[in-house]
Every structure is written in C-alpha cells, then in structure tokens.
Specification:
heterodimer; A: mainly alpha; 1% strand; B: mainly alpha; 5 helices; 66% helix; flat; Tricarboxylic transport membrane protein (chain B); membrane (chain B); transmembrane helix (chain B); DUF1468 (chain B); transmembrane (chain B)
Chain lengths: 509, 146
Amino acid sequence: METLSYLAHGFGIALAPTNLLLATVGAIVGTMVGVLPGLGPINAVAMLVPVVFALGLSPESSLILMAAIYIGSEYGGRISAILLNVPGEASAVMTAIEGYPLARQGKAGIALSLSAWTSFVGSAIATFGIVIAAPLLAGWALAFGPIEYVALMVFAFACLTGLLTDQPVKALLAIMLGLGISTIGIDANSGVYRYTFDSPNLVDGVQFATVVIGLFAISELLIMLESMKGGAAPRIEQLGRPLFNRAEMKFTNAATMRGSLIGFFVGILPGAGGTVASALAYTTEKRVVERTDPEGSRFGQGDMRGLASVEAANNSASNSNFIPMLTLGIPSSGTTAIMLGVLTLYNITPGPALFRSQPDLVWGLIASLFIGNIILLAINIPLVGLFAKMLSVPAWILVPFIVVVSTIGVYSGKSTTFDLVLMVALGVGAYFLRRFGVPMAPLILGLVLGKILEQSLRRALSLSAGDVAILWSSPIAIVLWSMATAVLLVPLLMPRFRRWREKAVAEQD
Amino acid sequence: MTQDRFLGLAALALAAAMVAYGYGLQAPFAYEPVGPRAFPLMAAAVIAVCGIILVLKPGEANTTEGSGVTRPILILSACLLAYALLFQPLGFVLSTTLLMVPIAMVFGASWWQGLITSAVLAISSYLLFDRLLDVILPIGPFGGFI
C-alpha cells in the first residue's frame, strides 16, 4: 500500500506541466532519433547530457526527459528496421528479420502498428514489474556494504562479458578501459594526481559528456560514413492497411506475453539489455512455434509472432533496465549508464538509498514511464507515416547537425579547446576499437562504475586492514561471486548456448 | 597480422604506459592499506592479460568491408579535428560555416548544398543556444557573432 501512495506521489510529479511537456517532447524526439539509421538511444541521450544542464532542469525533470528519449528511440528503432531493413539500433536487428519481409508483402502498415502495440504491452508489463519489484529489491539492497558492492559490480561485469559478445575478452578489455579512464584526475582519498600529465584540464578527471559524446556520437559518424558506401535494401514506400485487426492481435497475443516476460527478466540482469532480450525472445518464440505449429511457421519470411515477441521483449527490457539502475546503482545498458552518470553530476549518489533519499526522482521517473509509453503508443500508431519521412533526411544535413550539437554540448561544460580535441580523439579512437570488435557499452559502464568500485574496494580493504579475504566474507557476497563465476563458466561449458549467442548477437555493439 | 593481434599489441602498450605512469603514484601519508596506485595498476594488469589473450588466440578476422573508405574517413577526421581546434579562435558561426561544408560534402552533398546547410545550421544554432538557452558560444575574431 505504501508503494501505491508513493506511486500516486510520482504521478503528481510526472503530471506537472513541465515534466509532462518534457516527456512528450522526449517521446517525439526519441522516436525520431530511433528512426534514423545509426542513431540509437545512446547517442541521443549522450548528446542531451550537456543540453540538460544548459536548460537548468531539476534532476527529476532531466531524468524524465532522458528516459522518454530512451524508450522513444526503442519504439522508433522498429520503423527503419521494418521499412528499410536497417535496424536503427542494435536491439532492432531481430525486428528487421521478420518485419522487413512482412513489409515486402505489402503488410508494412500492419507490421508497424502491431509492433507499436506489442512494444506498448511489453513496456506496460515491465513498468508494472518495476513498481512491484524495485522497492523490494531496494529494501533488500540497503543491507549492501562495500563488500557486497564489490561482488555486485564484479557480477555486473561478468554478465557484460559473458552474455553480450562473442568475444568476451574484448568486452573485458572495454570495461577495463572504462575503469582506467575513471582513475584520471585527483584521487579523492589521498589527493594524489593520477594520469593528469600536469595538465590543469585533467585535474578533476575527464568530463563525462566529453567521453560519452566522443565515444558514441563522433565514432558513430565515422561508422555511418563507412556503412553509407555499402548498398542498401530497397525501401518500402507502400504501407498498406494501416492497422492490424483483431484476428492478428489474437494470433500474436501469446507471443507478445512470452516476449514481455523474457524481456523483463533479462532487463533486470545487470549488464544485459534489449539486444540480449530480443535475441532470446526471438529464438524462444521460434522454437515454441516450431513445436506447436510447424505448418504455420513463417519464421524468416515474415512471421508476425516473431515480430510481436521481439518488439515486446526489447521494450520490456529497456523499461526493466531501470530496476538495477534505480535500486542498485548498477546500470544494465550503456544508455542507463549515461543516465546514472548524469545523476552523479547532480551530486546524487545512485544506489539503494535512492528510494529513501530521492522519492521524487525515483517515483517521478517510474510514473513518467507509464505516461511516456501511453504517449508513445498514441503518437506511434497514427503518425508512423510522418516518422517514416525522417528516413528521407539526407546524411549531409544530419551529420553536420550532429557534429554541431555534439561540439556545443562538450564546449558548454568547461569551454576549452582541450575538451573538443579530446572529444575528437576519443571518437576516432572509439571508431577503431569498434572496427576491431570492441563494444562501447561496457566501456561506459566501466567508466561510470569505476569510481564506485574503487571506493568500495578500498573501503572494504580498510575494514580488514588489507586482507583480501574480506571480499567473500558475507553470504550475499558469496552468492554474487558464485553467480558471477556461473555466468562466465556457463558459456564455456555449454556449447549450445555458445552457438546461440554467436548467432544472436552478431550485430552487437 | 590479424586485427585482433594488432588490438592485443595496442592493449599491451597501453598497459605498459599505465604501469609506467602509475607505478610512482603513492600518497605521502598512507591512511589506508590500499593506496591510489593499486586500482590503476590492477586495471592495467587485466588490460595486459586481455592483450596477451588477443595476441595468442586472435579471433577470425572480420571481413573488412570498409576498405574503400579510408580517404573519406581521413577527411572527416581531419575536418572534425580542425573544427575542434578552430572553434574558439574563429568563433562559433565562422568555424561552423567553414568546416561543415567539407563534412557535408564527404556525406554526398554538392558544394552549394553544403554551404546552405552549414550557414543555416551555424546561424540557427547560434540563435538557439547562445541567445535562447544561454549556452555561451565563442565569439568571432571581429568581436561580434562573426
């Protein structure tokens, strides 16, 4: 019951005119960004970081705006996947597999409206899940001390390396690069200057916005340039019947529910986001259909069940991603990592105490997820044709726009040329890392978690006067260490899982 | 040499640099058992391990689809760097108008499409950010907005 009154309070915040406006703007901008091939939620949120500060928004308002953009671009990603066979972001890869064939059969309108609907169902289920699970988890996590935190973060890193990529060593490398960047600047405990190379620009570390925009927005431009030279699939112009009918809805209901649940649980895992969820939902649904209805299976040639399940899972996961972020202070995806980074810029320490110390922030955000999803459903079904028009914006307008907004964003922080050059250097460096198959999301997680991990580690070892054994001295920590070991070992021991992962996450970034 | 080997060697070089610059990091007074250098050195150690794994057991080489794009990539990187360096000295409006033209052209615009895009972009974002949102942008060499 206490939860309900908190939720009502949250709705009070989310329905305040400013926040409602921000959620609407965020939903529209997010969908637009999601439509554009190559621009995912992470780029949009990254470019927004400085703008949020420039606008002087309160922490809850800026979080509401960023969350709306985040879930909006998960909706938008499906449009380019279905119409163009180009996933707007990594988690829409599976959407293209079933959605594009449907569109080629003249069912683009049905595919678009049906996927908007299942996206909504997935999100709604996940949001209810947040309301139930998050306060419980937060209460439980209050018992976490530095020892448990170290184990939890190792578990998150293990999830990232074990689940995400076909080459775990590269994800691990990315995490460590992030940890390395987090050590730059003055050490809070001893006052020692670390890796500043006597530059005053590095004394208080590398600006968060500079790293994020360099790694995502700038490197994305170089990737865009590369992919532009490749051929594109023919674009679908005819949308056909604009809305799915009752029979189609009934046909996909079970798939939608399965996808939503898979997405919800995958999204809770620290380190696993929408990409893993949609891949898992797709393979599950395919197996279920092959077993129950082998004659009717159209997987690979445009099966609505596949499309429904993937979109439900993807959006469900992107909403339940907020659970580890809000309750544990451990983000599951690059995008939630950036949001956490923004919270720390507001001097808010993410973690289980957030539910007690920042009820406005937490419950305002949760309520705004409900509202944002309703807005998204409302704009995505009738206005889909309008959003599809975004696909005709030429790259030569889009790219200068991204460059200018990114540069202004970085410059607005400290107004130094140093930061701008660093942004470009990081962007070019990140481009090469991505070319070599090093994923960027773990790097950002490493950067965001680096300081907390180091502080927890040092605090824990202070308690034991340097004895490392204290790190596995509590039952919770032991459970977390065993889970981390399991996540790392299961892929090695189970060749079947490994094959699934290699196939499913080929497009992973 | 495969890509992974190269990446591994780069990781080893980075780890070596992190150790070289991090080994001397010690607090004059130690209040705690773990000083400021332990964590960076630990990260360096793991990076080195990753590097060794990549050198010894490289994955299959990705098919390099982007072999024909080296030149545009170089041009774009150079333009971005020039923009970063000239942003403050030339001011926002001039540097944007000047450098967004080649960037637009790399992405397939003709010179006049690029010029219109960059001029409109420069002026409209100056008005939006500097005037409306109070993000202070660098002024030009002539003291005004150019």
